[in-house]
TrEMBL record:
One Pfam family in the UniProt entry: HTH_31
Highest rank taxon of the organism: Bacteria
Stated name of the protein: Putative regulatory protein
Organism: Streptomyces himastatinicus ATCC 53653
Signal peptide per UniProt: none
Residue intervals of the HTH cro/C1-type domain: 20-76
C-alpha cells in the first residue's frame, strides 16, 4: 500500500502531467513554444508538466490545440475529473449537513455485493445501532458542521442498513480490539452496540474478525477503509476521504485486508473479545 493515501493523488496527477509532456514532445514543441502558442507564461507550462499545477479543462483544450491533438481532449478531461474526484474534503460534502452525505453513498452501497471494511477508530456504519450512530455523528457535527441534522442523518443510515441486510450483500469486517473500548458514547449505549455486533456476527452474510491488541504486524494502515467489491476503495482521512479506483492500488488493499484477516480472531474467539469488552463496562 502507498506510504500515504495522499500519494495516490500525487501519482495520478503526475501520470496526467506525463501524458501532457508526451503530447507536447509528439508535436515537436519545446515548453517555451507551447507556452507561446497557449498565450501563458513558460513557468505555467513547467508547473503543469511537473504536476505542481493541476490544469483546468480550458488549459487542457489549449494544450491539445497547440499540439494539434484535439482528439485527446475528451480523454484528458475525463482523466482530470477522475483525479479531482479522488480526494474530497469533508467540508465540501458536509456544508449543508450530514444527511446529504449519508444519502449520497446509497447507490454505491446498493450495487456492491461484497463489502470489506477495516475499522481502527469506530465501528463500521453498517453494524451501528441508532444510539451509537447518534453519538458518532453528534461528535462530528459539533466539531465541524454548522447545520444540525443529526437525527435525519441517523435515519438515513438506518434506512441504508435495512437495504444492506436484505440478503443480497456480504460483509467482511475487520475491527481493531481497541475500537471495542473506544469511548465515543456512554457505557449503556456502548453495551447495546457491542451486543448488536455479536448479533450481526451471527448472520450468514457477515464475517467478523477482531484484531487483538498487541498483535504483531508488518505494517498498520492508519486510516479506516471501505472496499466496495473490487471496484472502489474509500479511505477515511482526518480532513476528508480518498476515493481509489485504480486496479493496482485496489489490489494492494485486497492483499492488506487478507493479511489483516489472517491475524484476526474469528468465531467464538472474536465473540469472547466482544464479551470481555462488555464486561469491562460494568
Amino acid at each position: 500500500m502507498s506510504s500515504s493515501p495522499s500519494s495516490s493523488v500525487i501519482e495520478a496527477r503526475k501520470a496526467l502531467a506525463n501524458r501532457l509532456v508526451e503530447i507536447r514532445k509528439g508535436a515537436g514543441l519545446t515548453g517555451a513554444e507551447l507556452a507561446a502558442r497557449c498565450g501563458w507564461h513558460e513557468s505555467k507550462t513547467s508547473r503543469i508538466q511537473n504536476g505542481r499545477t493541476v490544469p483546468s479543462e480550458e488549459d487542457l483544450r489549449a494544450w491539445c490545440a497547440a499540439c494539434g491533438a484535439d482528439d485527446q481532449v475528451p480523454d484528458l478531461i475525463a482523466t482530470s475529473r477522475a483525479v479531482d474526484s479522488m480526494y474530497t474534503e469533508w467540508r465540501r460534502t458536509e456544508h449543508s449537513g450530514l444527511r446529504a452525505e449519508q444519502e449520497s453513498v446509497a447507490p454505491l452501497y446498493q450495487r456492491t455485493s461484497l463489502f470489506r471494511v477495516y475499522a481502527s477508530r469506530v465501528l463500521p456504519g453498517m453494524v451501528q445501532t441508532p444510539e451509537y450512530t447518534t453519538a458518532v455523528l453528534r461528535s462530528i457535527q459539533r466539531h465541524r458542521v454548522l447545520v444540525d441534522d443529526v437525527e435525519d442523518a441517523v435515519d438515513a443510515r438506518m434506512d441504508r442498513q435495512r437495504m444492506l441486510f436484505s440478503g443480497r450483500h456480504h460483509f467482511g469486517l475487520l475491527i481493531e480490539e481497541y475500537v471495542l473500548y473506544a469511548a465515543v458514547c456512554d457505557s449503556s449505549t456502548m453495551a447495546g452496540q457491542l451486543g448488536q455486533l455479536i448479533t450481526a456476527a451471527s448472520s450468514p452474510f457477515v464475517s467478523l474478525g477482531i484484531i487483538p491488541m498487541g498483535t504483531e504486524r508488518p505494517h498498520l494502515p492508519v486510516e479506516d477503509f471501505y472496499m466496495f467489491d473490487e471496484a472502489e476503495v474509500a479511505v477515511e482521512l482526518t480532513s476528508g476521504y480518498l476515493r481509489i479506483t485504480r486496479p493496482p492500488e485496489i489490489a494492494e488493499y485486497v492483499r492488506t485486508f487478507a493479511a489483516f484477516a489472517s491475524m484476526a480472531a474469528h468465531g467464538p474467539h472474536a465473540r469472547s473479545l466482544i464479551t470481555k469488552a462488555i464486561n469491562a463496562l460494568g
